[in-house]
Design goal:
Blueprint lengths: L15 E4 L3 H11 L1 E7 L6 E6 L2 E6 L5 H13 L4 E10 L9 E10 L1 H7 L10 H13 L4 E9 L7 H8 L3 E5 L2 H11 L2 E11 L8 H26 L2
Parallel strand pairs: 1-4, 1-5, 5-9, 6-7, 7-8
Antiparallel strand pairs: 2-3, 3-4, 5-8, 6-9
The structure holds 1-O-phosphono-alpha-D-ribofuranose (R1P) and uracil.
Length: 241
C-alpha cells in the first residue's frame, strides 16, 4: 500500500515532481506532456503519475487544496523519492503589476497559514524557494519568452476571507499574489533538505470572483507547465554534466 495517503512504493516517484493543487490539472499534464505516464496513486483523488519528458523521468503529484493537504503530500512524496518539487498552481493577484493570466515565480511565501505555524510553534520563519529551482525556472521562462514576475507571494488558509483591501495592504509590502500551499511545501522540503519551488498563474484579482476567461487561463497554464518542465530539464542537464 505504501504511504498512508499516497498509495505508492519508493521507485514509483521520480526525483523531479510537479505539484499542482487540482487533480484534473495533474491528469491533463500527464496526458499532454509526459511520455508513457503511469498512474501510481489515486487514493483520495490525490492523483500521481510518473512518465518522462524529453527523456527525463518526471512525476506529477496532486497536493489538493490548502496547506494541511500539501504538507502531507510533500512529506510522503519525499519519502517516496521526490527531491526537486515544483508547485504549478494558480493564485489571486494582489499587486497591480500582476494581471490575470500572468505567470508569477515565487522567491518566498509569507506563511499566513496554520500548518507552517504548527511546524515552528509560532516562531518566525521564512519559507523560501530553493535557489536552484528558482534559477532554473527563471532561465526557462526567459528562454521560452514567457512574461513573468519574480517575487514574494503569500500563502493563506481562508480563500473567501481575502478582500481587495487585504490585497492592497500586502501589495504595499511587496506581495504579488495569494495562494494556499507554497509555504507548507517550502517548509516541509527545507526540513528534509530537498529542493522546492513554486510558480503560479494569476487566475483572478484577490476578492474578485470573476476569473480570467477559461481559454486564456488554459493558455497561460499551458505555458507555465512548459516552463516548469524545461526548468527540470535544465536542472537534470546540470546534474549530469
Ligand atoms: O490551482 P491550485 O494549484 O489548486 O491553487 C489555487 O487554487 C485553489 C483555490 O482555488 C488553491 O489550491 C490555491 O492555491
Ligand atoms: O488562493 C487563491 C487562488 C486563486 N485565486 C484566489 O483568489 N486565491
Amino acid at each position: 500500500m505504501g504511504e498512508i495517503h499516497l498509495h505508492a512504493e519508493p521507485g514509483q516517484v521520480a526525483e523531479f515532481v510537479l505539484l499542482p493543487g487540482d487533480p484534473n490539472r495533474s491528469r491533463w499534464i500527464a496526458e499532454t506532456f509526459l511520455q508513457d505516464p503511469v498512474l501510481y496513486t489515486d487514493n483520495r483523488q490525490l492523483l500521481g503519475y510518473t512518465g518522462t519528458y524529453k527523456g527525463v523521468p518526471i512525476s506529477v503529484q496532486t497536493t489538493g487544496m490548502g496547506c494541511p493537504s500539501a504538507a502531507i503530500v510533500t512529506e510522503e512524496t519525499i519519502r517516496l523519492g521526490g527531491r526537486c518539487l515544483l508547485r504549478v498552481g494558480t493564485l489571486g493577484a494582489s499587486h497591480p503589476r500582476v494581471r490575470p493570466g500572468d505567470l508569477v515565480i515565487a522567491q518566498a511565501s509569507v506563511p499566513n497559514d496554520g500548518t507552517t505555524r504548527q511546524f515552528f510553534g509560532g516562531a518566525p520563519y521564512a519559507p523560501i524557494a530553493s535557489y536552484r529551482i528558482l534559477e532554473a525556472a527563471v532561465q526557462a521562462a526567459r528562454d521560452g519568452r514567457v512574461k513573468h514576475h519574480i517575487g514574494l507571494i503569500m500563502t493563506e488558509d481562508a480563500f473567501y476571507a481575502s478582500t481587495p483591501e487585504h490585497a492592497k495592504l500586502w501589495a504595499s509590502r511587496g506581495v504579488l499574489g495569494f495562494e494556499m500551499e507554497a509555504s507548507a511545501i517550502f517548509t516541509v522540503a527545507a526540513l528534509h533538505g530537498v529542493h522546492a519551488g513554486c510558480m503560479a498563474v494569476a487566475s483572478n484579482n484577490i476578492g474578485d470572483p470573476e476569473f480570467v476567461e477559461p481559454s486564456m487561463l488554459r493558455q497561460s497554464v499551458h505555458s507555465m507547465i512548459e516552463v516548469a518542465l524545461e526548468a527540470f530539464c535544465l536542472m537534470h542537464a546540470e546534474e549530469n554534466k
